[in-house]
TrEMBL record:
Enzyme class of the recorded protein, top EC level: hydrolase
Domain HIT: 4-111
Active site, UniProt feature: H98
Species assigned in the record: Sedimentisphaera salicampi
Name this protein carries in UniProt: HIT-like protein
Enzyme Commission code(s) on record: 3.-.-.-
Length: 112
């Protein structure tokens, strides 16, 4: 499987890990839009959110609040965006489900 995130899960590519449980891994984005920009991925490979089975979706849904709270605390941000891009039309570059947690500050201009 030629998937960069599967290689990270397998330990073949290093990452800066911030959270891990049986189903989910979170690590720092290599090209962050803001400091502490974090990616949350399921450990099992699915390309699109609509492919994700209910139990795995629940595991991701359970992990996201915990990880976003940790990102919020570490970054001291005023808020955050949680984004999931599906397919190239929506800006997906890596074909493995992932959620961006992007710390935001008032008037930071990261997104308009
Ligand atoms: P997408 O555009 O698919 O929603 O976002 C993919 C994200 O994965 C990008 O923000 C990009 O910087 C990040 N990314 C791509 N390759 C790697 C990698 O090898 N390591 C890490 N930590 N992040 C990566
Ligand atoms: Zn993968």
């Amino acid at each position: 499987m030629d998937c960069v995130f599967c290689k990270i899960i397998a330990g073949q590519i290093p990452c800066s890990k911030v959270y891990e449980d049986d189903n989910v891994l979170a690590f720092m984005d290599i090209n962050p839009l803001a400091e502490y920009h974090t990616l949350v991925i399921p450990k099992e490979h699915f390309e699109f959110l609509w492919d994700c089975p209910a139990e795995l979706s629940a595991a991701i849904g359970s992990a996201l609040p915990k990880i976003s709270r940790a990102v919020q605390k570490a970054s001291g941000s005023d808020g955050c965006n949680v984004l999931n891009n599906n397919a190239s039309a929506a800006g997906q570059a890596v074909p493995h489900i992932h959620f961006h947690i992007i710390p935001r500050f008032e008037n930071d201009g990261v997104f308009t």
